[in-house]
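We were asked to recover a plausible sequence for a given structure. The inputs and outputs are reproduced exactly as logged, with field labels preserved.

PROBLEM: sequence recovery
POSITIONS: 760
GIVEN STRUCTURE:
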């Protein structure tokens, strides 16, 4: 709402009602923030649901967030789980939030849902419903509540008008759906003409006429073919969760198994999507840094050793924790940064060398011996580097600056020495590098944002530098997407963008507002991120924690997708596999997923929609020098338009089969064997089981048939004005309509869903 130009401010409210209160813990106490006063709270008189407190704002408002204040100490009555509802009337509220509070003394701010059908949702009442306290047998307590939003009438008035009109229109559409489902077609036509409200898109009305009214199954399938040809199932496909398919990439049978990269972590990979070639350089094998350069051809499934020792060929020395990016159009690889053990650091070798590898000429070029001397970053490691191909500009952000002081790399995948999991160097105050831009044609560096040294603020506008973060460039949006990471001993979970043309920083998540851990990637774990600018999606593979103390208790893989347009995270899968199950990675077979790890590399081919993962550190406490050399591909799959069409055909033909069983069982049997069998997905166990059970319909008794009709019809057959065939077809039509976009289809709910029985 702030982005729309509305002024966000604290909103005044009163307490309208509450379920109960105990002693002097009045509900009005939550209007004042006195964290040192144990009596300044509302406390329910019971912990038996339902308990609630209902707040009434001075006037209708657009609410953006809610803040809960707390007592100065932890307290057993704090809300571990709660729900928040809002609306214009206390009898008609919708859920705005389902979350919980930490049991500490820090205030927590939550974003509230304020959009319905893409429009801002006005509220006059806010209802807070405690679900569980931190002490299981204790009553619920709320210490302080603050609401932030706008009461600007110019903003609120059109939202109320739209919302009232929306409710009226949806009520009419629900009536239209109910009338048509119950074969009251004359009343349906009359209501639709009188109100001029359309139930659905004309294509779906035509589908209903063919399928339900006429029972013309052939015409129904033709209409669905037309829908597929027009891409109308696209939104439904897009709404489906991805299904991950990992595949182990094994060398060809006749290929020398030694002619491939060895075990390593802290290496770098880039992919050329034009030639489907992956480049791999350097890393740490558990004993020493490496300086071999490899290429992998995806089409031929073969590795090529481009250089066994890049330093001998005028290229970079052996290194790990560096970064590399690829200019596909000009066939050039760029390499910057490295880590040096403390015993090898001295003034003369702390220069930040910068190299370019010409792929066509297979030759290294030293661009600069020390980027810091020409306006670039000092020698850094664990930074991030992205290329803007249009402007031929490389962006470098973050990373820790190497100095003669002792240090230890986490990114390289070494076992840490201290009990905290962070070495002595990280206990001192480290230095971090800012945001730099390197223009390739002119070979010039610019400092865009320096690190705000000593800043205690959390806001991403400062662009606090860090290590272990992710940074991706979106060429169409002209933005860098930066998120997560670590700064000293603080794990960051902020998320912001930097516009490379305007230098504008925009907050996506500031890291201070609580969100359900099941809805966002966890902080403190190694993250590898890629981007698909065509789909507007960011992908994150989260592996082991680099903190040794956290690692043994948090062995897991998780893969996340962030939709840039919808601003939504989705967890594709999460695997908390035990270390015993992962103890032997050498015997894995294709089709299984890789074990959790850190210090690995992940690249993405946005053309073929495939990820590739190589190597890393599995974090074995009993074998700290162990590194991996396994190679994997990952594809994220959703049902295709053709697969959905086949699923629709299965529903349609199953309906026709059920009708045939009632009039001609012999014909129905042949239809089952030929027509229906042809559209069964034999890879779907659930559909196969359903197909096999259909034969039971051929041998149903009259009693079983009557019971089936009652369960499907939801009304007594003696009172029903709808014949069984019409009702059966109508239910199938409802299932087909779910594959169409919401703006085309009838309401997803039915009028009968809102009928409830009073409690006894």
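RECOVERED SEQUENCE:
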């Amino acid at each position: 709402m702030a982005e729309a130009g509305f002024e966000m401010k604290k909103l005044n409210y009163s307490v309208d009602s509450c379920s109960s209160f105990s002693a002097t813990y009045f509900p009005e106490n939550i209007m004042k923030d006195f964290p040192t006063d144990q009596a300044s709270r509302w406390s329910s008189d019971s912990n038996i649901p339902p308990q609630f407190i209902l707040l009434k704002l001075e006037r209708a408002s657009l609410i953006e967030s809610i803040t809960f204040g707390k007592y100065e100490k932890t307290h057993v009555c704090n809300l571990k789980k709660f729900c928040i509802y809002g609306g214009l009337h206390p009898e008609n509220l919708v859920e705005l939030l389902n979350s919980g509070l930490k049991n500490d003394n820090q205030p927590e701010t939550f974003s509230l849902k304020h959009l319905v059908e893409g429009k801002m949702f006005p509220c006059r009442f806010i209802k807070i419903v405690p679900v569980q306290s931190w002490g299981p047998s204790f009553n619920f307590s709320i210490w302080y509540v603050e609401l932030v939003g706008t009461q600007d009438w110019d903003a609120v008035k059109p939202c109320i008008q739209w919302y009232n009109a929306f409710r009226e229109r949806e009520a009419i559409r629900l009536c239209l759906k109910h009338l048509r489902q119950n074969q009251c077609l004359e009343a349906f036509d009359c209501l639709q003409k009188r109100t001029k409200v359309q139930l659905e898109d004309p294509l779906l009305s035509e589908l209903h006429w063919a399928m339900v009214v006429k029972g013309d199954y052939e015409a129904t399938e033709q209409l669905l073919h037309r829908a597929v040809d027009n891409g109308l199932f696209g939104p439904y496909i897009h709404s489906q969760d991805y299904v991950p398919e990992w595949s182990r990439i094994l060398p060809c049978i006749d290929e020398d198994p030694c002619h491939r990269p060895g075990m390593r972590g802290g290496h770098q990979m880039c992919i050329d999507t034009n030639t489907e070639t992956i480049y791999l350089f350097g890393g740490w094998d558990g004993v020493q840094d490496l300086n071999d350069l490899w290429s992998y051809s995806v089409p031929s499934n073969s590795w090529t050793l481009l250089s066994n020792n890049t330093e001998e060929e005028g290229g970079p020395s052996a290194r790990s924790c560096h970064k590399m990016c690829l200019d596909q159009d000009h066939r050039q690889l760029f390499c910057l940064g490295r880590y040096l053990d403390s015993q090898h650091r001295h003034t003369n070798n702390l220069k930040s060398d910068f190299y370019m590898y010409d792929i066509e000429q297979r030759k290294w070029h030293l661009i600069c011996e020390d980027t810091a001397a020409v306006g670039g970053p000092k020698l850094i490691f664990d930074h991030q580097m992205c290329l803007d191909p249009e402007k031929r500009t490389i962006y470098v952000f973050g990373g820790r600056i190497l100095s003669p002081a002792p240090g230890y790399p986490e990114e390289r995948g070494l076992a840490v020495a201290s009990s905290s999991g962070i070495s002595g160097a990280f206990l001192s105050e480290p230095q971090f590098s800012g945001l730099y831009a390197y223009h390739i044609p002119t070979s010039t560096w610019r400092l865009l944002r320096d690190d705000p040294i000593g800043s205690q603020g959390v806001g991403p506008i400062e662009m606090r530098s860090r290590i272990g973060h992710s940074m991706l460039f979106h060429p169409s949006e002209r933005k860098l997407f930066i998120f997560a990471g670590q700064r000293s001993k603080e794990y960051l979970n902020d998320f912001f963008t930097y516009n490379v043309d305007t230098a504008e920083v925009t907050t996506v998540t500031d890291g201070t507002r609580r969100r359900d851990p099941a809805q966002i990637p966890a902080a403190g774990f190694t993250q590898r991120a890629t981007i698909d600018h065509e789909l507007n999606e960011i992908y994150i593979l989260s592996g082991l924690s680099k903190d040794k103390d956290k690692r043994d208790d948090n062995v897991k893989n998780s893969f996340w997708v962030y939709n840039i347009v919808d601003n939504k995270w989705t967890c594709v899968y999460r695997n908390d596999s035990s270390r015993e199950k992962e103890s032997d990675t050498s015997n894995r077979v294709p089709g299984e997923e890789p074990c959790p790890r850190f210090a690995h590399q992940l690249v993405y081919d946005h053309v073929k929609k495939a990820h590739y993962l190589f190597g890393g550190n599995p974090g074995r406490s009993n074998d700290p020098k162990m590194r991996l050399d396994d190679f994997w591909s990952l594809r994220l799959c959703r049902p295709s338009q053709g697969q959905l069409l086949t699923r629709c055909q299965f529903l349609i033909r199953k309906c026709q089969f059920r009708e045939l069983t009632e009039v001609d069982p012999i014909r129905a049997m042949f239809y089952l064997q030929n027509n229906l069998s042809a559209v069964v997905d034999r890879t779907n166990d659930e559909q196969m089981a359903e197909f096999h059970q259909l034969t039971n319909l051929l041998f149903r008794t009259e009693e079983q048939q009557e019971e089936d009709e009652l369960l499907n019809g939801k009304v007594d057959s003696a009172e029903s004005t709808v014949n069984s065939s019409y009702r059966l077809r109508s239910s199938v039509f409802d299932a087909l309509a779910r594959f169409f976009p919401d703006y085309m289809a009838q309401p997803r709910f039915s009028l009968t869903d809102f009928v409830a029985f009073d409690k006894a």
